Q: What sequence folds into this?
């Protein structure tokens, strides 16, 4: 797949152990494959973010895993149970990957596509407010 890389994201990934590099590169490919308009940047000084009309996800390598923070306000369905933490978080939930664990590419890609659609519809905050409004009928 062809997309514009952010050199600072490359630098972040290149500094990681090989197994974390592989996870980050696969997630990077998946998020770009979800929509060709996705761009990447660095926020919070060094953390890779993937955005399209709002945050989609961010990468954060920890000692024994890689966190993929999905910015969906908890409204995107998770029928495959890939969310590993932050179930009650009001902004982002986490999908953590450890060395040797496979990435459920179809489930993660579906989640990315739904987040992008929600971003294009005004963002999860707006969508959440609209679903919580009492009916006026």
A:
């Amino acid at each position: 797949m062809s997309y514009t890389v952010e050199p600072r994201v490359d630098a972040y990934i290149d500094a990681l152990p090989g197994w974390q590099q592989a996870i980050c590169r696969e997630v990077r490919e998946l998020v770009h494959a979800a929509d060709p308009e996705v761009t990447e940047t660095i926020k919070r000084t060094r953390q890779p973010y993937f955005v399209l009309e709002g945050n989609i996800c961010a990468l954060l390598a920890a000692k024994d895993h890689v966190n993929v923070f999905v910015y969906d306000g908890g409204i995107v369905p998770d029928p495959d149970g890939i969310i590993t933490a932050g179930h009650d978080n009001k902004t982002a939930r986490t999908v953590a990957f450890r060395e040797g664990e496979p990435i459920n590419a179809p489930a993660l890609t579906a989640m990315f596509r739904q987040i992008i659609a929600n971003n294009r519809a005004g963002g999860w905050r707006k969508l959440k407010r609209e679903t919580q409004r009492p009916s006026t009928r």
Notes: Residues 18-34 form the longest helix (17 residues).
